Amino acid sequence: MDQVFLLKKMRVLTVDGAARYYLDAGDFPMAMDQFLGRTIRISATGRKVCNGCQQEVNALFRMGYCTPCFYTHPAAGASLVSPEKSTAHLGI
Ligand SMILES: [Zn+2]
Predict the structure, then answer these.
(1) Core-most of 31, 60, 75, 89, by most CB within 10 Å?
(2) Which residues of the chain have pLDDT under 50?
(3) 47, 56 Cβ separation under 8 angstroms
(4) CB-based neighbours (< 5 A) of ligand 1, an ion
(5) What's the pLDDT at 9?
């Protein structure tokens, strides 16, 4: 099975005390426990996609944002570099 998707940190769900790991592979999460004991291959395409605007770009900066998103995207605010500036606890 060949799929192209943006590699992200896997999600973990706990079901009946057992951890299940899911890889966001395109349009649906893929349960990774089905691959236990099997060989899988993941290779990089070299393409860079911004975490904010989802556009393919030439360069990425901190946390995988392009230059415009690094300065404007809410998730890449000042608290990214200076955690003491976070307003998340204020609901802002
Ligand atoms: Zn962007």
Answers:
(1) 60
(2) none
(3) yes
(4) 50, 52-53, 66, 69
(5) 86
